[in-house]
Amino acid sequence: MDKKHFPYKFVDFLISVHQITDKITKDVKPEGLTPVQFKILEYVAANSPTTLSQLSDCLHMPLPNTSRELKKLEEKKLCKKESGVEDRRKQYICLSENGEALMQEIFKKVESKFLDRLKDDSQKDLEEIDNALKLLYTKVFYSNHTT
Amino acid sequence: MDKKHFPYKFVDFLISVHQITDKITKDVKPEGLTPVQFKILEYVAANSPTTLSQLSDCLHMPLPNTSRELKKLEEKKLCKKESGVEDRRKQYICLSENGEALMQEIFKKVESKFLDRLKDDSQKDLEEIDNALKLLYTKVFYSNHTT
DNA sequence: TTATTTTGTTATCATTTGATAATTAAGAGG
DNA sequence: CCTCTTAATTATCAAATGATAACAAAATAA
Asked: Which residue numbers delimit the HTH marR-type domain (chains A, B) (predicted)?
């Protein structure tokens, strides 16, 4: 297979995405949550239900710290923890009702800020963008839970 | 304009990109650099030359802290600082030779890890992906330096 | 049964990062 | 000249995060 390298660089793309996302999410982040706590909420929102170990693995933070931060999130009534039935060591983690509401509101704001950036684009442009998002999502930024 | 919302959600895309990128850059990050310091290097690599104020603005960190961390980066011989000629208050910041080399090596590794994910794709797929990256870059994740 | 592994908790300490005030130096404008 | 603003530095303290050890409880294997 002739794998000549891309004319376009992933790194450029990633840095750009990262910068814009940072800028947009900046004034959307709720008060009273530390960055790490927000990261956890984000992860749980996208991968619910999950376990402490999985959280710890995927967010690259030691289990004791994950446990500590999750405890705080429970105290803030944003997360729920529940022992598994088949394996009672495992703690299954979900967002609470409050947590769901919070994250949905935040996601909605982010979504609308991005759509604002596209307000001068034609319907055709929007469709192209939509297709590009889908394509990259399925072909590149898929997550293989096998590793 | 009929701005019906996208079938595909930006937030899903962003979270996915963020997770994959995190995973891929994790074992690429150099020893002896704190996360913030790496973030600074990344920014400088992409926006060189820049100033302390700009760094502070874009990375959402207070100027004194930016100054402190940059000083450490200078001590590690990864950044250079130079007073402006027209306005001698401004400090223009670039990567040093070492810094350039370090970041290029890291970017290269990230790049190749992404290409690894695509090793089973056809040439046609790769072209489509390349086009999608370009499209999103120019239409969505462009940075307007005007704000 | 006993030993071992997995999952998570609690406690503790070091490091990193955030936040703020005080200060210096240079430019802008009166 | 003097005042005001901007860019950056230094110092300091609080808060968040990282890292590690010791422990407990449930599953698994011997």
From this structure: 1-138
Q: How far is B138 from chain A (nearest CA, A)?
A: 10
With contact defined as beta carbons under 8 Å apart, do B118 and B129 qualify?
yes
Q: What is the pTM of this model?
A: 0.91
Q: Side by side, which strands form the sheet with B79-83?
A: B50-51, B91-95, B79-83
Calculate how close chain A gets to B7, using CA atoms only, in Å.
8
Contact B110, B25 (CB under 8 A): yes
Share above pLDDT 70 across residues of chain B, in percent, rounded to a whole number? 92
Nucleic strand D under 7 Å from the C-beta of A36: yes
The SS3 call for residue A69 is: helix
| Rounded CA separation A121/A127 (Å) | 10
Question: Taking chain A (147 residues) in consecutive chunks of 10 residues, what is each chunk's mean pLDDT?
Answer: 62 94 91 96 96 96 98 97 94 97 95 92 93 95 65
Calculate the angstrom distance between C1' of C27 and CA of B78: 30
Topology classification of domain B10-139 = Arc Repressor Mutant, subunit A (1.10.10)
Does nucleic acid strand C have an atom less than 7 angstroms from the CB of B59?
A: no
Asked if the C-beta of B29 comes within 8 angstroms of chain A's C-beta atoms, the answer is: no
Cross-strand pairs, B73: none
Architecture of domain A10-119: Orthogonal Bundle (1.10)
Question: What 3-state DSSP class applies to B51?
Answer: strand
- Measured between CB atoms, does A124 come within 8 Å of chain B? no
CB distance A32 to A75 below 8 Å: no
Which SS3 state, helix, strand or coil, does residue B80 take? Answer: strand
Q: Where are the domains of chain A?
A: 10-119
Residue that has been written with the tokens 């495992």 in this structure? A90
Judged by DSSP in three states, A46 sits in helix
> Does B145 have pLDDT greater than 60?
no
